[in-house]
Write a structure and sequence with these properties.
Layout (H helix, E strand, L loop, with lengths): L2 E3 L2 E2 L5 H12 L4 E9 L4 E8 L1 H18 L15 E8 L5 H19 L3 E5 L10 H5 L2 H10 L19 E5 L4 E7 L4 H11 L9 E8 L4 E8 L7 H14 L4 E7 L26 H14 L1
Parallel strand pairs: 5-7, 6-7
Antiparallel strand pairs: 1-4, 1-5, 2-4, 2-5, 3-4, 8-10, 8-11, 9-10
Length: 304
C-alpha cells in the first residue's frame, strides 16, 4: 500500500529548522521524502512524502517532534494563512490504494498527534465527520490568533485533543483528499490589491473557475504581487485554463503575468496537454512530475 503525504510546515525562512525536519525524516523506515519546497515570503515549507501507512505515521510524528522544539507561532509571520506549526497533513492515495485507506490512516494519525503533542486536531476533506469541516479554509479561518476563541465555541470542538490551542504549536488539520496542485502566478506589479482582485475573479467561491481556490499576496523578497492558488481538480479545470484566466484578468487591470511556479509535485497527467514554457513555470524541472520523482528516489535507493 503506497500513500502520498504532503505536510505543510509554518517555516520557510530558517534553513536550520527545515534541515532539522529533513534530517529527522531520513531515519524513518518506509517513508521517503521526494520533494521539499520552501518559500520565505509565505514562510512555509511543503514536503512531499511517499510511503506505507506505518512509515508515514512515524514520519508525521517526527515532523511534530522537530516543530515542537523549533517553531513558535507566537513569533511566526508570513503571507500564507496558518493555524498550526504543522498546519495541515493530507494523505493522498497512490496506485491501488483506496481513499478509504487514507481516511483510516488520517484518523489514526490525527488521534496520535493529539495525544502525544497535546494539540487540537481537526479532520478535514474526505476524512471530515461534519460537513462544516470539509474545507480547510473554513477550519483555518481566523488563523492561529483567533483559534482560542474559535475552539471555545462547542460547534468547533476539535475531533481530537484539547479544546484550547497548543501555546506555540497551535492547531492542526489532518485528512484524506484527492490530488491537489498548488500553483502560483506572479504579476509584473507589486500591488497586492490587483492580485486580490484577480483572485476574486478566478476563484470558485466568487463565481470564477470551478475547483479553484485563490488569494492575492505581496512577496517582499521579489517586490511582486502573486495570485496564490490551489487547484482541487486539474482534470476539470486544467493548469492551462487557470493560467489563461489569470492572464486575461491581469490584462484587464493593466498588468502582465511575470511567471508562475508549482509548489510541490504534480502528476504527469496534469502537464500532458500543456508545455511548461507556455505557462512560464519558473521552477520547471522534470522531477516536478510526481512519477519521475518517485522513480528517481527508487533508483537512488537501489543504487545506494
Amino acid at each position: 500500500m503506497l500513500i502520498e503525504c504532503v505536510p505543510n510546515i509554518s517555516e520557510g525562512r530558517r534553513p536550520e529548522v527545515i534541515q532539522a525536519v529533513v534530517s529527522a525524516l531520513a531515519d524513518i523506515p518506509n517513508a521517503t521524502l521526494i520533494d521539499q519546497s520552501s518559500d520565505p515570503d509565505h514562510n512555509r515549507t511543503v514536503l512531499t512524502l511517499v510511503g506505507t501507512p506505518e512509515g508515514l505515521q512515524g514520519a508525521i510524528c517526527a515532523i511534530y517532534t522537530v516543530a515542537l522544539a523549533t517553531i513558535d507561532l507566537r513569533r511566526q509571520q508570513g503571507a500564507h494563512p496558518r493555524m498550526g506549526a504543522v498546519d495541515v497533513a493530507p494523505f493522498i492515495p497512490l496506485g491501488d490504494t483506496s481513499m478509504g485507506d487514507c481516511i483510516a490512516l488520517s484518523r489514526v494519525v490525527g488521534r496520535q498527534i493529539a495525544e502525544e503533542f497535546d494539540i487540537p486536531v481537526f479532520l478535514y476533506a474526505k476524512s471530515s465527520i461534519s460537513t462544516t469541516r470539509r474545507k480547510l479554509a473554513d477550519i483555518r479561518k481566523g488563523g492561529f490568533e483567533a483559534m482560542a476563541a474559535k475552539l471555545a465555541d462547542p460547534a468547533w470542538r476539535p475531533d481530537f485533543g484539547p479544546a484550547t490551542p497548543h501555546p506555540w504549536l497551535g492547531v492542526s488539520a489532518v485528512g484524506a483528499r484527492p490530488f491537489l496542485i498548488a500553483y502560483n502566478i506572479q504579476l509584473d506589479s507589486p500591488d497586492p490589491l490587483v492580485a486580490r482582485s484577480i483572485a476574486r475573479a478566478v476563484r470558485e467561491s466568487s463565481g470564477g473557475l470551478p475547483f479553484v481556490q485563490a488569494m492575492g499576496v505581496y512577496l517582499p523578497a521579489r517586490n511582486q504581487a502573486q495570485v496564490s492558488m490551489n487547484l482541487l481538480d486539474f482534470e476539470k479545470t486544467p493548469l492551462s485554463r487557470v493560467f489563461e484566466a489569470v492572464k486575461a484578468e491581469a490584462a484587464l487591470r493593466g498588468v502582465k503575468v511575470a511567471g508562475s511556479e508549482i509548489v510541490g509535485l504534480i502528476p504527469q497527467a496534469a502537464i500532458d496537454s500543456t508545455a511548461p514554457a507556455d505557462l512560464l513555470i519558473e521552477n520547471w524541472h522534470p522531477n516536478l512530475i510526481l512519477e519521475n520523482a518517485i522513480r528517481e528516489k527508487i533508483s537512488a535507493h537501489r543504487n545506494g
